[in-house]
Amino acid sequence: MEKTPPRIVVVVPTYDERTNLPVLVGMLMDLGLPDLRVLVVDDNSPDGTGEVADGLAARSGGVVGVLHRTEKDGLGRAYVAGISRALAEGADVVVQMDADLSHPVSRVPVMVDALFAEDAAVVIGSRYVAGGSLATEWPWHRKALSAWANFYVNAILRLRVKDATAGFKVWRASALNAIDVPSVRSNGYSFQVEMNYRAVRRGLRIVEVPIRFEERVSGESKLGLRVQIESALAPWKLLIGRNRG
């Protein structure tokens, strides 16, 4: 008897990504993975990304769905909404992926395979394991900031994850339910850290596979000063919260 393929939902938060989104969706659909869906979570993008997403959905034959949110209130909130929708609609596997083409689409099947072959709860597309790399276009200070952020997070939380701030992940639905995603409060890029922290605290298996992280193709990075400050404080909030509990 042939095994039923897992229902895979790729959750893609968007804000002003009208140029990149159609390219990403096309590349995902070209993978040929059975029962793969894409859920775009748009935060009322002023550049019309939401309308572009609706057009892609209308032409996709049910492969693309769109969740429209009324305001831009952070990457973490968008992911909580998107992951919650994916789980409610019966996803077996949920992929977290940026819309800016910095995450290599070709690694999605590799990460899904690793999820089951390694009996993992989550597979991280990692820049810092053997074989992983950062975009050559990144200036030295940006590379240094990324490396320091991972060292900083691991020094405080002892996650033993080489790329603790990575945003390219493949999760089992059971793991997402176990860590209670709707109760995650971190926002911005610190959302990724809290998700890892919750998985580690529950003894869930985390596997990292190497990726080459590319510079965004078009548009502007959302990594502003406010996000950086929030990300710096997040590990301490998690640690203090654990000690209080």
Automatic annotation (TrEMBL):
Entries under SUPFAM superfamilies matching the protein = Nucleotide-diphospho-sugar transferases (SSF53448)
InterPro entries, per this entry?
DPM1-like (IPR039528), Glyco_trans_2-like (IPR001173), Nucleotide-diphossugar_trans (IPR029044)
Keywords, sorted A to Z:
Glycosyltransferase, Transferase
Keyword Ion transport present in the record's keywords: the answer is no
Domain Glycosyltransferase 2-like positions: 10-177
Q: Which Pfam families match?
A: Glycos_transf_2 (PF00535)
Q: What protein family does this chain belong to? A: Belongs to the glycosyltransferase 2 family.
Please report the name of this protein according to its UniProt entry. Polyprenol monophosphomannose synthase
Organism lineage? Bacteria, Bacillati, Actinomycetota, Actinomycetes, Kitasatosporales
